[in-house]
Amino acid sequence: MAATSRGTTPVPPDARPRLTVLSGPSGVGKSTVVAHMRKVHPEVWLSVSATTRKPRPGEKHGVHYFFVTDEEMDKLIANGELLEWAEFAGNRYGTPRRAVLDRLESGEPVLLEIDLQGARLVRESMPEAQLVFLAPPSWDELVRRLTGRGTEAPEVIERRLAAAKVELAAEAEFDTTLVNTSVEDVARELLALVKVL
Ligand code: ADP
Ligand code: 5GP
């Protein structure tokens, strides 16, 4: 048969590069687990979000977040440059759309570390995404981790714990739950979920 078609060969559904969303309450260990996984597997691509939150000590612009002003965030939203965005505990956070789509189009798996509201928005706009929930071993341990991190003022911790109750109640909406008892074990399990190719 003459080769008349142009463009890419259709990718079988089970080999499609996958978008993975990791969510879970603040302080459960999302950043720690992702950082551990990427130390071992730097090829796993993580989307860098924009946020109006101020950087914590050690956080770098363009690495941990794009730290933007309220006006800059307004523009990103108005120009449709965010795949999703949400307000969380007094700050806005959003996923830059272009970088994620470019990565998926080039056949690479993509990992987003975003809050529950963001996870729900991604599920609506990209139903093929897999949603992974990171759960704490217990409520007391979550409080210990969030407080022990020492990066938030007491009133911010209170807001984040209030959000955590809502997030924990939504666990059943996710495809998979990983319990963060051991960073190494969870990082390995997450890697297996992200790298489906
Ligand atoms: P998140 O990104 O979900 O807000 P972090 O990654 O900042 O949470 O982790 C919050 C705190 O919990 C940090 O001090 C981190 O070192 C600690 N932590 C993370 N995972 C574990 C774990 N499996 N066991 C004990 N402490 C942990
Ligand atoms: P933190 O301030 O602790 O870095 O993040 C607070 C919350 O915002 C976490 O639940 C984190 O996953 C979430 N978050 C980070 N980036 C984004 C994003 O781009 N979109 C949404 N919806 N949430 C995000």
Question: Explain this structure to me?
Answer:
The chain has 197 residues and is an alpha/beta fold. It has one domain: 3-Layer(aba) Sandwich (Rossmann fold). It is 40% helix and 19% strand. It is built from seven helices and nine strands. It has helices at 30-40, 70-78, 97-105, 116-125, 139-149, 154-169, 183-194; strands at residues 19-23, 45-46, 50-51, 66-67, 82-88, 91-96, 110-113, 130-135, 176-179. Strand 5 (82-88) and strand 6 form a beta hairpin. The radius of gyration is 18 Å and the shape is globular. Residues 24, 26-32, 145, 148-149, 180-183 line the site of adenosine-5'-diphosphate.
How many distinct beta strands?
9
**Overall pLDDT confidence:** 91
Instruction: Give the cofactors and ligands.
Output: adenosine-5'-diphosphate, guanosine-5'-monophosphate
CATH architecture tag: 3-Layer(aba) Sandwich
Distance from N terminus to C terminus (CA atoms, Å) equals 30 Å
Q: How large is the share of residues in beta strands?
A: 15-25%
The CATH homology group name? P-loop containing nucleotide triphosphate hydrolases
The largest sheet has its strands arranged as: 2-7-1-8-9
Q: What number of structural domains do the residues give?
A: 1
The percent of residues in helical segments reads 25-40%
